[in-house]
Amino acid sequence: MTGTQLRPPIPLVDVDSAPWWEALKAGTFTVDRCQECRRWAHPPLERCRTCGGQNTLEPVSGQGRIFSFIVVRHQSLPGLVPPYVVAIVELDEQDGLRVTGIVRADPEAVSIGGRVSARIDPIGDSGYSAPAFELTPQSDPASPTHALICEAPEEGPTDGGSPTSLLGRPT
Known about the structure:
By secondary structure, the protein is mainly beta. It has one helix spanning 18-25, and strands spanning 30-34, 40-41, 55-59, 63-72, 84-91, 98-103, 115-122, 129-135, 148-151, 164-167. A 5-stranded mixed β-barrel has the order 4-5-6-8-7. A 3-stranded antiparallel beta sheet has the order 2-1-3, covered by helices on one side. The longest helix has 8 residues, at 18-25. Residues 141-171 have low confidence and may be disordered.
């Protein structure tokens, strides 16, 4: 397609997510919060998954830790040039409150447990915006992180089995 610029996909907005997309357009990062039990929930839903109470959008800090991530090395979306990082970020507001987004950083600098801060980026010229994340300095170097640890004997397995991968526990 010579001379034609591919545009990033436009979000599929539904009745539950429309207010969230509108808040992002206005420059505010929000997440649903139950008005009964005060639990946060994402993606947006009318009712709380925990107690069935009414959810409403409330602003969040956008601060959190990288829970998991992938490095995209092959073009998969128009408008995003690889390599780039897509992460699941656990927000500081609540354990288990996770959102996804692009991490605007060198993929080699991204790690599980790394601190991030949200910003709101436009999605091409669609009029929509989405949360993206930037790495922030580690505020507490002794804070827990998770790591994938692959251990294998130097000469290979001696019992006929294969090396195992262990998920590191918080330190």
